[in-house]
Amino acid sequence: MWWDENLLVLFRRNLQPTITYWSVFFSFGLCIAFLGPTLLDLRCQTHSSLQDITWVFFSQQFCILMGSTLGGAFKKSLKLCLTVLFISSLTISFVFVIIPFCHRVAVLAMVMAIAGLAMGCIDTISNMQLVRIYQQDSAVFLQVLHFFVGFGAFLSPLIADPFLSDTNCILSNGTLNESKNLEHIRNSLVPHHPRNVSHYVLPLDGPALTDVAYAFWIMAAINLPVPVAVFLLMYKKGMVPGCGHQKTSLLSEDELAMETHKSNEFNDDKMSGAQEEQISGHGVHLCCQTKNAPYTFFSIHICAAVVLFMSDGIVGEYSGFVYSYAVENPLSLAHKTAGYLPSLFWAAITLGRLISIPVSYKVRARTMLLINLIGVLGTFLFLFLSQNSIEGIFLGTAFLGFSISSVFPSMLAYTEDILNYKGCATTVLVTSAGLGEMVVQILVGTVIETQGSYSFLVCGISLSTLAFCLYVVLVILDNMHPKGSEGASQKQAEDRDSERYQQ
């Protein structure tokens, strides 16, 4: 059996919080993927230009970065983390409900900024809490977590598709011919890069006819059980004010969990439930004491963060520009055929994350990263050598999505393993990955405009090569990083606080 019995016992003991964090990440995926397909209908709803409406992307992505950084500040207590998750998941449902009532692009940008803050907090806190619960066994659970964000991102456009307008949804006699290019424009819209649609002129005046509101309300209903699940977890842990549920039963569970951990060699240093809330402040204090930290401590953070900056940047670059690359020379694909490429890419990412769940239990995160990064670099080289082949672009797209799918959860598990699961790295890595997705799209889009479409693959080769080189540096730093004294001192401090709490 591929699943270890001790790990299964640990999973059963933490079943409710684990499933709750997974479901919250589904909300994240549902919210992050709907904007691209629905942007033209939202343009009609707000009577704005293509250049103006594409900046809604920036509003969302920038606030995701802010929320990711803000989420790290809530790690001092489990109660605070769950409260923020409850508010954030509820906010996402609320945003879905009110988007159809936003008739000004500035109001829509503000609403998406609020959603971005909620998404950033979800991203950091969910990753951080799973690492805290499972520590050295967290890799497989992080893979499941990121499968759920991929599943949400895959499902969101499918929900929206039946309600998207097939023609220009602002009635105007002046530019009816532009409606023929509507699908091409929709696929050409790239976050943070409004210049790529500057030559298209669509009407701004006239009645707007769109049914996209129903898509948002359906997504709001689908997401509604998520805040309910977070609330039930808070209730179980006695964190809901005014409710009669007491913490005494939770304490007995935690004591039982601690005794079970002592009898299993891989669970000695795990914390659960209320113990996290009591002693995480001490852990944060130790984490922030970098005065005597070795130079490898900072170097590991930097290397891991830059690798994720590059890898998530590749995801944003490829999903954003593969369509534009495919419809130009030398491939010159039909617009409808090229439109399948981004969907194929995200489907391959979701499938790769699903397959990585059992694989990550048998294969170390360090080895998975090596395989993934070699696969990404090899795929870009294959795409470059077969750039005249239509079959090559489809095969390469699928393999690239499959290869890059588990880079983030594997890197997070590997980095936290190097640093003894202090939780310091999670905020840095999540923020760096989001920053890469935003910045790399801007840089690559500028290069494509100035140098031509062939530079799309050259940029991919350069980014993947740099990511692989930094991974090699990270492995060297891992071998150099002291693991004895630092881990022992933190373990002794945690044991002292745990004994004090039990007394």
Please, could you describe this protein's structure?
By secondary structure, this protein is mostly helical. The protein folds into 2 domains: 233 residues, Growth Hormone, Chain: A, CATH 1.20.1250; 187 residues, MFS general substrate transporter like domains (Growth Hormone, Chain: A, Up-down Bundle). The chain has 22 helices and no strands. Helix 6 packs antiparallel against helix 10 and helix 7 runs antiparallel to helix 8. The longest helix is centred in the middle third of the chain and has 32 residues. The protein starts with a helix and ends with a helix. The C terminus is likely disordered.
Key descriptive features of the protein:
mainly alpha; Growth Hormone, Chain: A; 2 domains; disordered C terminus
SSE diagram, text form:
Elements: H1 5-13, H2 15-32, H3 35-46, H4 50-53, H5 55-72, H6 78-98, H7 105-134, H8 138-160, H9 182-188, H10 212-223, H11 225-236, H12 248-262, H13 273-288, H14 295-326, H15 335-338, H16 340-362, H17 365-385, H18 390-404, H19 407-418, H20 424-451, H21 455-480, H22 485-502
